[in-house]
Amino acid sequence: MKILVCKDYAQMSEKAARIFAAQLILKPNSVLGLATGSTPEGMYASLVEKYNEGKIDFADVTSFNLDEYYQLPVENDQSYDYFMKKHLFNHVNIENFNLPNGMVEDVEAECKAYEERIEAAGGIDIQVLGIGKNGHIGFNEPDSVFIKNTHLVELTPSTIEANSRFFASEEEVPKKAVSMGIGTILKSKKIVLLASGEGKADAIAKTVYGDIDPMVPATALQLHNDVIIILDEAAASQLKP
Ligand code: F6R
C-alpha cells in the first residue's frame, strides 16, 4: 500500500483527480470504478474542471459504480445515479456509465449481469473508494466473511445513521443496497482509497495495520498489489509517523 498524506481535503481531492486524469491520458478508453458519498465530491469537481480545460476526455470511457440503493428510484435525489449525474456525468462527455439497478425484481440476476458487464468491458482499470467509519468499502459491511461478488446488502444501523444526514429522517434511508463485492473490488487493476477527517482515522489505521478481517472489510485491500491511500492529516492522525 502506498500512503499519501495531504494537508487537507482540497489537496487530497486534487491528488486523486490527477491520478485519474493521468489514467485517462494514458488510456483514453479506461474502465473507471466510481464511488459516491461526500469524500469523492472534490475529486469529481476537479475532474470536471480538467475536462472543461480540455485536459481530459471521457468519450471512450466506461464506468461502473460501486453501489446503488435497493428500491430507490433513480429520479430520487438521494439515489447514487442522481448523485453521479449531479457531480460528474452531466458535466463531461461520458456516454457509457453503469450503476447496479436497484429497481429490478430479480436482484440476483442483476448482480450476476453487473459482474458480467464489468468482465465484458475488460475489467476495471482504476477504482476509487471511500471508507465508512466501520471500515466498509462499497456497501460491504462488517461480516463474518468477505462477500465476493456483487450482491444485495442489508445496511448496518451505523451506515443507516451515517447516511441519514442526506434524508429528511432516518426512516427514509433505504435499508438495503446492491454493492460490488470485495472480490469485484480486488479485481480492479489499481485502487485509490480516499479518506478525510478525524472520523475516518480509526478505520484507516485498522485498514493499514489490522489483521485481514471481514469485520473491517477494507483490510482486504492489503491483499491487492496496487493500492494508493490518499488521506488528509486528520484521517491520517492514527497512523504511526
Ligand atoms: C459509496 C460507497 C461508500 C462510501 C462510504 C464513505 O459509493 O461505496 O462505501 O464511500 O460510506 O462515505 P462518505 O464519503 O460520505 O464518508
TrEMBL record:
Catalytic residues (positions): D67, N134, H136, E141
**Family annotation (InterPro entries):** Glc/Gal-6P_isomerase, Glucosamine6P_isomerase, Glucosamine6P_isomerase_CS, NagB/RpiA_transferase-like
Record-listed E.C. numbers: 3.5.99.6
Q: What class of enzyme is it?
A: hydrolase
Q: Name one GO biological process term.
A: N-acetylglucosamine catabolic process
> Which Pfam family is one of those matched by this entry?
Glucosamine_iso
Any transmembrane segments, and where? Answer: none
Limits of the Glucosamine/galactosamine-6-phosphate isomerase domain: 21-225
- Its annotated pathway? Amino-sugar metabolism; N-acetylneuraminate degradation; D-fructose 6-phosphate from N-acetylneuraminate: step 5/5
Quote the catalytic activity from the record. alpha-D-glucosamine 6-phosphate + H2O = beta-D-fructose 6-phosphate + NH4(+)
GO-annotated molecular function: glucosamine-6-phosphate deaminase activity; identical protein binding
Cellular component, GO annotation: cytoplasm
The family classification in the record reads: Belongs to the glucosamine/galactosamine-6-phosphate isomerase family. NagB subfamily.
Physiological role = Catalyzes the reversible isomerization-deamination of glucosamine 6-phosphate (GlcN6P) to form fructose 6-phosphate (Fru6P) and ammonium ion.
Q: What is this protein called?
A: Glucosamine-6-phosphate deaminase
Species name: Peptacetobacter hiranonis (strain DSM 13275 / JCM 10541 / KCTC 15199 / TO-931) (Clostridium hiranonis)
